[in-house]
């Protein structure tokens, strides 16, 4: 099974068939897809300027999509290195029980679904790397009451998501499943009440 870097080389290789280059970009999303596979693909296609169903997109656009994905992946991998170092130090200092950020991080190891978007057509507009930087910053500071990606205030508790956790606060502005550790207890309660108001 090819790794992310070998797939990226295939996307860039002009000697490869265009269909293989597109396929290799899709396969990269099996290794790293911050919004989930379908939503990340939709995001990359819209940012690079080709249709998600286009079977023979401009090779330069494929490479542009790959470059955005690679930049975001490097941001996430750097965070995972820092996270692992922090946990090692905490264990050394006797803190064996992980916190809520650690519980969330375990579900997103490798970067899949870090900013899960259950609806593949609704995701943040900005560059993936910037979205991840905002999310990481939120994980490293005190919890707040708004979406860490877009500062949206309309958070609604959703159930039956195609992700783990399968329920949680979703930002109705940018579509991400907001990690619970970045929100205050009041913000989480407000999101749950918002769900009840939607059902009423």
TrEMBL record:
<protein>
    <submittedName>
        <fullName>Uncharacterized protein</fullName>
    </submittedName>
</protein>
């Amino acid at each position: 099974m090819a790794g992310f870097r070998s797939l990226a080389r295939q996307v860039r290789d002009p000697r490869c068939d265009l269909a293989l280059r597109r396929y290799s970009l899709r396969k990269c999303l099996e290794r790293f897809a911050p919004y989930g596979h379908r939503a990340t693909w939709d995001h990359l296609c819209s940012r690079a300027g080709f249709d998600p169903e286009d079977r023979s997109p401009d090779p330069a656009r494929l490479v542009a999509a790959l470059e955005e994905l690679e930049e975001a992946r490097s941001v996430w991998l750097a965070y995972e290195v820092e996270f692992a170092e922090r946990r090692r130090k905490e264990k050394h200092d006797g803190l064996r029980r992980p916190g809520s950020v650690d519980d969330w991080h375990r579900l997103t190891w490798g970067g899949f679904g870090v900013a899960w978007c259950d609806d593949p057509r609704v995701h943040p507009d900005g560059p993936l790397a910037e979205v991840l930087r905002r999310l990481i910053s939120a994980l490293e500071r005190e919890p707040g009451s708004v979406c860490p990606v877009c500062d949206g205030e309309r958070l609604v508790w959703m159930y039956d998501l195609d992700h783990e956790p399968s329920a949680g606060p979703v930002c109705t502005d940018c579509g991400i499943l907001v990690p619970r550790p970045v929100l205050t207890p009041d913000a989480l309660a407000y999101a749950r009440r918002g769900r009840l108001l939607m059902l009423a």
